[in-house]
Amino acid sequence: MTSQYNDRVVWLCLGATLFFAVRGVAAELHRIRELTTIRNGEKDDQVIGEGTEDETLQKLSESTSFDLRAAALRIISERSTKGSTRDLLLEDLSSKDPTLRNKALNALYFLVSNRACKTRPQGEKKALNTLDIILRENVPAALEAGVISRWLSKYPFPCTTEDEPKRIDVVVLTKTWYTDDSVMSSIISTLSSHQEGVSQLRKYGLMGSRMAEHTHSVYDDEIGDEYDHDDGSENDSDVWMVGGEETAGLPLWAGGRRRQEGTAEEQELRRQRREAMVFSESGRPLGRDDIIHPVRNREDEELDAELEQLADEVDRELREEQLEAERQARPRRSWSMWPFS
After folding, report:
1. Which UniProt keywords apply (predicted)?
2. 151: closest CA among 185, 128, 172?
3. What is the mean pLDDT of residues 214-221?
4. Any idea where the domains of the chain sit in the sequence?
């Protein structure tokens, strides 16, 4: 009896041990499977991002690096311009709480204001504002004093700090991005509205050449002066596509016969000159003798010769302007109201 009782106890303990061992192994296998499972954590990431990204963006917006600060402010601005966020700002703007209302006002003002980097010294700001006002009263005196030759031609424009050839696009860029630097843009606009100012801007490499003007004059002679150009068309003809040299086709001096696209009547006139008549009977292959080209008259030959001569003159004029810009500027009498003399 005693041996049978002992055997039962042993088998009972062995069974209990196996039961707990199986349960433990199964539990560990389930835990390993849960740990290795890839879950869709969009909600978790969103919850974590709302708490951490705001603090990170706030720290980056106060960074000493301009690039990091600009990137953080750009992300904040993009998020703030969405519909729900904008509605929340407008709702806070109408709140009765002064603190909340002021914060919403500051945020909206930040979104609508110009965020251009303000690195200009205070003294230079005062001088430019003063020059902008007095320059309109006497542009010739300012040009004679050297407002372009002595100062503007040496001014460190942002577009020329890394790419010096961009200096020729200064006038175009200041007119395009007027709000980035309204004072300097106003000064350049005043100078470019004066005939002598345009000449000096071209001379010192701040403005494009006069190739478009020559092209328009050739078209006027060809068509019979159907299109009138006023005195202010000089500035309009100098509009160049910045950075579009690879897509704008061949320039005027490449071959001497590439002209700018004109109006519909001018294009029709050029199309008629390129037309050819083809006569062919059915059942017979088309040959070169069946193509009859229009007879070129004397006017067409004279026009081509004039265009080739114009291309040579433009090349010579560009070389002369470059040589003249390299020479030392002639001494000019001082202007009593010039703030940079």
Report:
1. Signal
2. 128
3. 44
4. 1-34, 47-112, 119-246+298-341
